[in-house]
Please model this.
Amino acid sequence: MKKLVVSTGAGISAESGLSTYRDAGGLWENYPVMQVASADGFQRDPALIHKFYNERRKQLVECAPNAAHYGLKELEDAFDVRIITQNVDDLHERAGSSHVLHLHGELMKVRSMTHPERVYDVRDITGGGIETSLSTRDPYGDPVRPHIVFFQEAVPNFAPAAELVQEADIFVVIGTSLVVYPAASLISYVRKGVPIYYIDPNPADTGTLPVTVIREKATEGVRKLAEILRTSH
Ligand code: APR
Model:
């Protein structure tokens, strides 16, 4: 089976009701990003960060995957689909995708502050709840933090993501403004001659790269992409 590598951003979850970051009314329009999503911010006011991610978890549990997420799952019958996502939501997993690699962490997970390799589903250490605070403890009695890559922090999954892109027979980008690095550089790891598709109603400029733009919202764009892929690949 051909390897179909898909890189997704906030745009794929927009039609599920989750706001993007930089569109009008986006998350960063309503919250000071460096206060709620940076390492310095977490040092300065960890309680505010717990609160910010509690609110985002409450919103996420009210949302469901949309036809774009399900469309990518369905392509697994004809392709070896590997998803790399900048999103911290779990909508790809809830749509049933078999391979999802998160670059910026996972909203429904938290991790020990002293042993970062100890990662938990938030429900498992809050007796089924989705909110954490400075007093939340893991089974070893350690304080926890959101399992999110804050700005100013390393992106440990970038290397495996770049490797995946280099193995792609087809590369697809969906719903990202391509402004945050290193995620935005993934497109440059595509081997010469491998077709690239970019689904976005307001696509970023991809310069001289040979990209086929599908100027649609994700749900319609993935439907069109599936048609193209099933007839010509
Ligand atoms: N369908 C597809 N794409 C959409 C839709 C939609 N319905 N609505 C908006 N978009 C597109 C926008 O045109 C834009 O290109 O989604 C993209 C959203 O861009 P951003 O808000 O910048 O989100 P993203 O690129 O995922 O941000 C990257 O920035 O703040 C950090 O860690 C955060 O992972 C995030 C990273």
